Amino acid sequence: MQVATEVLYVNSEASIVTARETVKKIAESVGFDVYDQYRIATAVSELAENAVKYADGGTMEFHPIERGLEIICKDSGRDMMQKNTGHGLGIGLKSIEHLMDEMIITTDAHGTRILTRKWLK
């Protein structure tokens, strides 16, 4: 069964919950066990919360890929990566890095893009 890509806009607490619930269903459809579904959903919560808190919102893309799931978070406002604020964003990114198998962060004049991947075991 092929699972479709989902794209969501996150800009509120309610949209963070929606992103978490959506990715959990996708992860289950891809074939992740309950433990990894929880890890993926937690990482998405962190990403979405960072986008809302530090960048006035952004998009979350959930791409089922061969043997896994790719998640891309793009900001749509202030730079999500500004760590000088003293608000502890770095801790959230470390937890995402721990929960997922891969994480690539790019920042340019258009904002920040965080790509994460989780592979089926």
From TrEMBL:
Residues 13-115 form the Histidine kinase/HSP90-like ATPase domain. It holds the Pfam family HATPase_c_2. This is Histidine kinase/HSP90-like ATPase domain-containing protein. It comes from Candidatus Argoarchaeum ethanivorans.
